[in-house]
Write a structure and sequence with these properties.
Blueprint (H helix, E strand, L loop, with lengths): L1 E5 L8 E4 L10 E10 L1 H7 L13 E2 L3 E8 L11 E4 L2 E2 L22 E3 L3 E2 L6 E4 L4 E3 L11 H18 L8 E5 L3 H12 L3 E5 L6 H8 L3 E3 L3 H4 L5 E4 L4 H10 L5 E4 L13 H10 L3 E4 L5 H12 L3 H7 E6 L3 H4 L8 E5 L4
Parallel strand pairs: 8-9, 12-13, 12-15, 13-14, 15-16, 16-17, 18-19
Antiparallel strand pairs: 1-2, 1-4, 3-5, 3-10, 3-19, 5-6, 6-11, 7-8
The protein binds beta-D-glucopyranose.
The site of beta-D-glucopyranose has 11 residues, from helix 2.
Length: 349
Amino acid sequence: MKALTVVPLKAGTAELSDIDDPPESDGPVLVETLGVGICGTDAEILSGAYGWAPPGRERLVLGHESLGRVLEAPAGAAVAKGDLVVGIVRRPDPVPCANCAVGEWDFCRNGQYTERGIKEHDGYLSEHYRITADFAVKVDPSLGELGVLLEPTSVVAKAWEQVGRIGGRAHWEPKTAVVTGAGPVGLLAALLGVQRGLEVHVIDQMASGLKPDLVRALGAQYHTGSISDACKLPDAIIECTGVGSLVFDAMEHVGVGGVVCLTGVSSGGRSLDIDAGSLNRSMVLENEAMVGSVNANRRHYEAGAEALAKADRAWLQRLITRRVPLADWAQALDRKPDDVKVVVEVASA
Ligand code: BGC
């Protein structure tokens, strides 16, 4: 079967390869891949900056934002032939650590977890893949191709869960939230914020075009300036850019008792001049919290699936700005200014 493979940590090695059928060891559920979303992590892997091949192998099958249709499943399994499913990305470490042992692999303590399409386990960008039913999440059939948005939605569902749990350490009745970045993660974070009844403000650099339109269509407000200009002392900030200056801006301008959740992975190598003392002082005196959040466990995928199921289909549809056939995969990486989510189509839905 055809698969998009790459030699991790070597730029320019991606190719459409002919590989063996998916191994039985990946699970008894056989899935036909319909589409795979491309994100910044894929771009990083393709540029040679991130990623790990499976042990003893040179190449990794890429792809972690999947949507597929079940072709075969054991009788009585939680998924059945014909179901639209999304594969969970992370697998618990084999030890397992205390978190992986209870299904909280997104909080793996020893770093020995694997991630499909990213770390030591082949991804979903192949014509078929195998999986165990407990790592396949069913999506509402009425979502169709929009189910491919579930993986990034699971990541923001986890971020909102962190914000709620941390906020809930005291009386917590949040009213306002700022989301930095109007890429797919930022827009989905805004969607979930609006679904929570919050007044949501999204900040990005694009002055006009699809991103501001999408934010306004949600009933949220769009800004191009600073956090403090967008919203005075928000209860929560979901930082989706990984840009260092915005991270510190968020710490400085979150409201009293507020929570900043960082979801963007920075590239590193840039320094900022920070008044660490006054930052510390205001964080302490105002009980502010900052938390990093990565990946998602099954609970977050289920929350994400619910959020997508109740979202406006036409709005979700506008997030998928380009679909590229597998044979033309390279075009998916050629970012256009108005791109939000680009999907590599593997089979038709
Ligand atoms: C994925 C996560 C993953 C993270 C780090 C992100 O792009 O969505 O599932 O944990 O990269 O590898």
